[in-house]
Amino acid sequence: MSPTAALGWADWAALILHFMMLSLLSIGGAIATAPEMHRYLVREHGYLGSADFSQAVALAQAAPGPNVLFVAVLGWQIGGAAGAAATMAGILLPSSVLTLALGHWSSRQRDSREVRAFISGLAPLTVALLLSTGWLLGEPAQAHRGTLALFIGSAIVAWRTRINPLWLVAVGAAAGALGLA
């Protein structure tokens, strides 16, 4: 049985519509909506396991290319090529159309008080969404003290220094290879 055979038309429509809604909430990029994707795909519908979800996000984030590719990987795991197309269309279309529609208007209005207030309000929202994503993806690490220490240490080093993040990845890889994380 193919992965797409498990989903009916109503499931496909709900999946696309849910990702379209997430598209309009993805301030800070699609990764900022990962907790809601996890809730919908793992907890509510059981399309994926929690470990499968985290692995899909990690794989796509490690690969070169746009950050949004994790959405295609999630869709692929749910329904093959049709799933990847459905989730990508859902996450890309609404925000792209809205951006194109509002881009010209906002460039003419960028100095208005309302536009400046809106843009200023997006910063804390983006940070909060990204923190919730980090918390969700870090859940497996919360059970292992070494991994949790590495996670917290890496976050502090990244925040407080200008060290190249590749060094943090290398330290994490070495800790994993040594069984410390």
Poorly predicted runs are none
Fraction of residues in H or I helices:
over 70%
Computed structural class: mainly alpha
Overall pLDDT confidence: 86
> How many helices in DSSP terms?
7
Order of helices and strands: HHHHHHH
Shape: globular
Distance between the termini: 38 Å
Number of strands: 0
Measured by DSSP, the beta-strand proportion falls in under 5%
Cα-based radius of gyration, to the nearest Å? 19 Å
Largest sheet, strands/sense/barrel: none
What features would you describe in this structure?
The protein is an all-alpha fold and 181 residues long. It has 7 helices and no strands. Helix 1 packs across helix 4 (69-109). The longest helix is centred in the middle third of the chain and has 41 residues, at 69-109. The protein starts with 8 loop residues before the first helix and ends with a helix.
